[in-house]
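Today's session is about reading a structure prediction critically. Students often jump straight to the picture, but the first step is always the sequence itself: look for stretches that repeat, for charged clusters, for runs of hydrophobic residues. Only then move on to the predicted structure, which in these notes is written as discrete structure tokens rather than atom positions. Here is the chain we will use throughout the hour.
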Amino acid sequence: MKKTLVLMLLLFGLHSFAQDALPNVNLMTLDGDNTTLIQAAESDSPVVISLWATWCVPCLKELDAISDVYDDWKDETNVQLIAISVDDSRTVKRVKPLINGKGWDYTILLDTNNDVKRALGAATVPLTLVVKNGKIVYRHSGYSPGAENELYEKIKEYAK
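Below is the predicted structure for this chain, in token form.
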């Protein structure tokens, strides 16, 4: 009986830490305007949210790889990508020049206080989410070449 009770408490505890609703956290645009994560991700189509930083090489590789196929993804699924920089006040000044140099066609938001990162329980970046109707339906941490293909399969699954 004790083992069953402990197991049930453990499972309930793990479920309560699972993130499924998108947190309503304040963010800033590159132009200095305020928005919230929920406002930015409001869409009937799937939304990809990528937490990244200018100093994170895997983050840059992932966003570059997605950039190569992003126009096709948008045409087929109407997906939107929101790239949220978690650069702090010391490194945030590098975001705009990097974006301009890369030519990424993403919505770029700034999380200089790491509020989104904390709210999502993200230990590291990159963290990639697929959101549908305000709910997190897919979550992936880290990047390896080809991971964008798995991401696209999830996007297509929720674009239906």
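Discussion point for the tutorial: The chain has six helices and seven strands.
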